[in-house]
Amino acid sequence: MASPGSLTWLAVFFAALFLLSKLRNRLRLPPGPPGWPIIGNIFDLRTQTHRDFDRLKSMYGPVLWLKLGNLNTVVIQSAAAAAELFKKHDVAFADRKAPDSLNACDYIKGSLAEAPYDEYWRILRRLSLSELMVQKRIKSSAQLRKECIDKMIQWIKKDASEFCEIQLEKYLTIMTYNQLSSFMLTRDITDYKSETGNEFLEAMRNFLCWQGKPDVVDAFEFLKWLDPQGIRRHTRMYLEQLLKIVSVFVQERIQERNLQKGNNTRDFLDALLDYEGDGKGSVDKLSEKNINIIILEMFVAGTETTSNTTVWTMAELLRSPDSMSKLKAEIDRVTGSSRAVEENDIPELTYLRAVVDETMRLHPALPLLLPRKAREDTEFMGYDIPKGTTVIVNAWAIHRDPDSWEDPLSFKPERFLNSNINHKGQHYEIIPFGSGRRSCVGMLMAERTVSLTLARLIQSFDWELPANISPETLDMSEATGFSLRMSTPLKGVPREREAKC
Ligand code: HEM
C-alpha cells in the first residue's frame, strides 16, 4: 500500500501538471500532439527529425508546438510562416539554441554560428561578411578556388585510369577543405597523402558525426552531469584535437607577422588578427583562443555542407541523363572547345544554376537550418511564443511543400528557368542558406564553389553510374549527421573527355 508521504507527492505532482496545463491553456500556443508528463513529445520523433516534423505538419499545420523534455519548441514548416518569422520577428528569434556538448573547450564562447545575438556576434558577423560576402573579396580569391579544382580534376584523371569507378565524396571533401584553407590561411590543409591533413579530416569527421546525434541532455538538462550518450566527452576529445592543429597554423602566422616575413596577401586569418575595436565596445581584440575557434568553425560550417551539396547534385544528374546532357551542352556552348569553364562564366550558365537550385531544394544541406531561440515573449501569427522557446525552421519540409511547388518530389531544374525565384533568402519557399540576420555568411563562396566544381566535373568527364546500378536503383536515401548526406556514398565512372582543362 502507498504511504501517506508518497500519496502527498503524487497529489503535488498532479496539481503541478494541472497548473501547467492551465497555464498552457492561458497561453495561445500553436497546435501540436499531446505530450507525456516529463518526456513531452520525445516519442513523436522516430526516424529523421525533419521527416517527423513534416509528418506532424499534415496533422497540426505549418506552425507546430512540441515539448521535447523540458524544452519548449516551435517548428515553422511553410513559406508563409517562414516569411512571417524572417520579416517580422527576425530579431526576437535571433539567439541560437546551441547544443550543450559545444560548451566543451569553451567553443560556444568563441563561436559565431552558436553565439547569442550580442556584440561579440555582431563583430564577428561584420568581419566575416566583409571577407566572405563582398563581391570584390570573393572575386579576388577566384584563382585559389580554380587551383584547388584543377588539382582535384588531375587526381580524378589519375585515379580513373587506375580504377574503373571512384567514390566522389573523397575528392570533393579534400578539394572543399583546401579551398577554404587557402582562402582563410593561404595554404592547403591536406592532400591525398598528408598525415596532418588526414588527421584533421578524420577528427572533423568524428566531431561532425557526434554533433549529428540528438543529445538527450539538450531535452533534460538535469542529465548534464551524467552525459549518458557520451556526446560531450567525445565532442571535447575531437575539439581538442582539431583546435590543437588549428592553433599551430595560427601560431606560425603570428610568428611570421612578428618577424614581418611571409607573403603580402592578406587573408581571413590576417583580418581576425588585425581586428581592433573602436574603444567604445567591450571587445577590442580577438583572443588567440577565439581566433582558433572561428577558423575551425568556418571549416565546420563550410566544408561538409558544400561537398555534400555537390555530391547530391552529381547524384541527381546521374539519375537524370536528360538534365546531364542539357548541362553538358550549355557548358560546351558557353566555353567553346578550347578552354576550361571559369567562375566568370557562371552568370551565363543558367541551366547550371537551375540544377544547383533544384538540388538544394530537394536536399538542403542543413534541413532544419540552425536552431534559434526566442529572446523575449513574442506574439507570432496569433500564438504566444514564450521567451527561451527553441525555434526551428524546417527548410526540408518547406522545399517539398505542394502549396509552393508543383510536383515537389521530382527533380526538375526547368522550374527555375524563366523564374525570379532563387536561394538567396528573399523567396521563402527555398531557403537552403536560411534568411535574415542569422543567414549563412558563406553563401557567395558556397554557390561559386558548388557551381564551378560541378561545371568542371561535367566538362572534363563523361559520367556514368557503375555497371550494377541504374538511375532507378541508385540509393538516394538520406543519412543525417551534422548535414544531410547520401546514406550510400555515391560512386561514378568518369571517362575523360578531350583535353580542355
Ligand atoms: C552549400 C553550402 C552551405 C550551405 C547549404 C549552408 C547553409 C547554412 C545555413 C542553413 C545556415 C543557418 C542559417 C539560419 O539559421 O538562418 C548557415 C549558417 C552559417 N554558415 Fe553556412 N552554408 C554553406 C556554406 C558555408 C560556408 C562555405 C561557410 C564559411 C566559409 C559558412 C559559414 C556559416 C556560418 C558562420 C553560419 C552562421 C551564421 C550566423 O549564425 O550568424 N557556410 N549556413
Automatic annotation (TrEMBL):
Sites binding heme sit at: 440
Q: Name one GO biological process term.
A: terpenoid biosynthetic process
PROSITE patterns assigned: CYTOCHROME_P450
Residues annotated as signal peptide = 1-25
- The domain of life for this entry's organism is Eukaryota
| Segments crossing the lipid bilayer | none
User: How does the protein's chain sit in the membrane according to the entry?
Assistant: Single-pass membrane protein
Q: Which SUPFAM superfamilies match?
A: Cytochrome P450
Q: Which InterPro entries match?
A: Cyt_P450, Cyt_P450_CS, Cyt_P450_E_grp-I, Cyt_P450_sf
Q: What is its main location?
A: membrane
This entry carries the following GO cellular component terms, namely: membrane
Q: Does the keyword Metal-binding apply?
A: yes
Q: Which GO terms describe its molecular function?
A: metal ion binding; oxidoreductase activity, acting on paired donors, with incorporation or reduction of molecular oxygen, reduced flavin or flavoprotein as one donor, and incorporation of one atom of oxygen
An example of a Pfam family matching this protein is p450
Q: Which cofactor does it need?
A: heme
Subcellular compartments: Membrane
The family line of this record is:
Belongs to the cytochrome P450 family.
List the protein's name: Iridoid oxidase-like
